[in-house]
């Protein structure tokens, strides 16, 4: 076994820009806290504290008006001890190397906890997509793919959709990447991206994978605590893909949706809101749940304090804070969104004996779905929906049980347990393999 | 301050009921942007009614 004995250097204050405080600091804080908990080897802490590769590409694209514009694209590859880098590509004006770094590191923990043979990566292009035509967006995507060249690949780094990118974007990337391969190898490279459209190697059921994973996490928690979901009241913040599908499966299991909040407003009915009725209503009401006939409006600031057994924040971060945590009625928080509970809010909830199924576990159904798509393409298979759901069930159960048992055995909360398991798995790989040379 | 912030380009930015901290959002399931339909197929021009009739007569 290789042993590295150098001391950890203290981070240089000079090199730390004030602007990058925030997300990267949060990710590092979570990492350091878990690393302390498991007494992570200092050398492995050093390796995991920084990214493996950071690729910045400036590439020209011909615009519709004949002018050429230069774009900047990023791909950060944090760690690949467990397998190819995996993570989304976002198109947004705020994309930069620091944003990609934090999100890539987060992906490393997420794929590790999910027990997938992946590492973590993230990237994107700094642009505002509203300012470009569909033809321009296609050329930007294809040229970015060409610029990244062999820095991505089906066995090396596998991008996926993120903010402002979708299955169409992935189809363009796959097509461009495959076109750069020798003819006989082209079809063997379809799994260079996941999140592709159904007809182009995409996974059946990918739309519901995250929401189903949220439901499964709740179900497993109920089973571990000898509770039935039948008649349990739940509230959902966000009625998009995650919130809707989680509510759909919970209702099928006998639970009762009593309140929903989306970007337009909040509604409540303690007697129950039919999930499918609300979904159909939102479709014909420009995506909004407001004024749903079988419910009453609720003050948006009261939403999380409504009477319920289970609370599913499935929209955005920083929603459960010191302000509302003391008044939350739910006994279980299932984090469908990323980072919905802040540090202060979490402390209050844990002191009150409320369980939190952490985001890194609870919403990991999406990345597991991506893994299934990759496997399906790699093996030349086409999986049926029921097959996908069964496999997802099995994979989520494995992760949940590990986190739950670790949490019980070590006397820590489930979030700490999840991070410890994720980091220990990577540590084990480094210990087994050693460091080259 | 968090420099990752997707709210300014979201169509709900002015009326969003979810958060007042619109400078801190890096991920949101309600995020939506007014982008053109990315369907790449071109629209097929339907023949006008009288042209259709003419074709039927021929």
TrEMBL record, chain A:
<keyword id="KW-0520">NAD</keyword>
<protein>
    <recommendedName>
        <fullName>Glutamate dehydrogenase</fullName>
    </recommendedName>
</protein>
<comment type="similarity">
    <text>Belongs to the Glu/Leu/Phe/Val dehydrogenases family.</text>
</comment>
<dbReference type="InterPro" id="IPR033922">
    <property type="entry name" value="NAD_bind_Glu_DH"/>
</dbReference>
<dbReference type="GO" id="GO:0006538">
    <property type="term" value="P:L-glutamate catabolic process"/>
</dbReference>
<dbReference type="Pfam" id="PF02812">
    <property type="entry name" value="ELFV_dehydrog_N"/>
</dbReference>
<feature type="binding site">
    <location>
        <position position="370"/>
    </location>
    <ligand>
        <name>substrate</name>
    </ligand>
</feature>
<dbReference type="InterPro" id="IPR006097">
    <property type="entry name" value="Glu/Leu/Phe/Val/Trp_DH_dimer"/>
</dbReference>
<keyword id="KW-0560">Oxidoreductase</keyword>
<feature type="domain" description="Glutamate/phenylalanine/leucine/valine/L-tryptophan dehydrogenase C-terminal">
    <location>
        <begin position="203"/>
        <end position="434"/>
    </location>
</feature>
<dbReference type="InterPro" id="IPR036291">
    <property type="entry name" value="NAD(P)-bd_dom_sf"/>
</dbReference>
<dbReference type="InterPro" id="IPR014362">
    <property type="entry name" value="Glu_DH"/>
</dbReference>
<feature type="binding site">
    <location>
        <position position="86"/>
    </location>
    <ligand>
        <name>substrate</name>
    </ligand>
</feature>
<feature type="binding site">
    <location>
        <position position="241"/>
    </location>
    <ligand>
        <name>NAD(+)</name>
    </ligand>
</feature>
<dbReference type="GO" id="GO:0004352">
    <property type="term" value="F:glutamate dehydrogenase (NAD+) activity"/>
</dbReference>
<feature type="binding site">
    <location>
        <position position="210"/>
    </location>
    <ligand>
        <name>NAD(+)</name>
    </ligand>
</feature>
<keyword id="KW-0547">Nucleotide-binding</keyword>
<feature type="site" description="Important for catalysis">
    <location>
        <position position="162"/>
    </location>
</feature>
<dbReference type="GO" id="GO:0000166">
    <property type="term" value="F:nucleotide binding"/>
</dbReference>
<dbReference type="InterPro" id="IPR046346">
    <property type="entry name" value="Aminoacid_DH-like_N_sf"/>
</dbReference>
<dbReference type="Pfam" id="PF00208">
    <property type="entry name" value="ELFV_dehydrog"/>
</dbReference>
<feature type="binding site">
    <location>
        <position position="110"/>
    </location>
    <ligand>
        <name>substrate</name>
    </ligand>
</feature>
TrEMBL record, chain B:
<protein>
    <submittedName>
        <fullName>Uncharacterized protein</fullName>
    </submittedName>
</protein>
